[in-house]
Specification:
Layout (H helix, E strand, L loop, with lengths): L11 H17 L7 H24 L4 H27 L5 H23 L1 H4 L9
Helix pairs in contact: 1-2, 1-4, 2-3, 3-4
Length: about 130
């Protein structure tokens, strides 16, 4: 599973999160200017945070609990992104079909993160010597 992956950018879940964040960046470009520092800022921040938390988790693979904690943070940010997209639809900035599409993308991302959490031992680094 993780044996051939050498960088977090090779993870499918990271790739999906990056694509989703870029899609959100693109679709929020047309939101009203009064939302620039509220809804737009929040949804862009949370979608990007999914990616950054995955990258941080990857670097913390020496410590199972820290690895899981960062993946859990990524999962929470993905759920937050879904809520902001729901607000975008309710405010009339996005059509229902776009909101459903993005929600589905993040459902898949969340599922991938949960799989990594459940199988954390397959992803963490085992060392023979105790780290200093």
């Amino acid at each position: 599973m993780s044996n051939n992956i050498r960088d977090f950018r090779e993870l499918r879940v990271y790739d999906a999160a990056m694509d989703a964040a870029m899609k959100i960046f693109s679709i929020t470009a047309n939101f009203p200017s009064e939302e620039k520092y509220s809804l737009v800022d929040q949804v862009r921040r949370s979608s990007r945070s999914v990616c950054t938390n995955i990258a941080e988790a990857w670097r913390k693979r020496r410590y199972r609990a820290a690895f899981i904690a960062k993946l859990s943070d990524a999962e929470s940010e993905a759920a937050e992104t879904q809520v902001w997209m729901d607000f975008s639809g309710k405010c009339g900035y996005l059509g229902n079909e776009v909101v459903i599409e993005i929600r589905g993308i993040y459902d898949q991302i969340i599922a991938g993160l949960i799989q990594m959490i459940r199988n954390a031992d397959n992803w963490t680094i085992r060392t023979k010597e105790k780290m200093v």
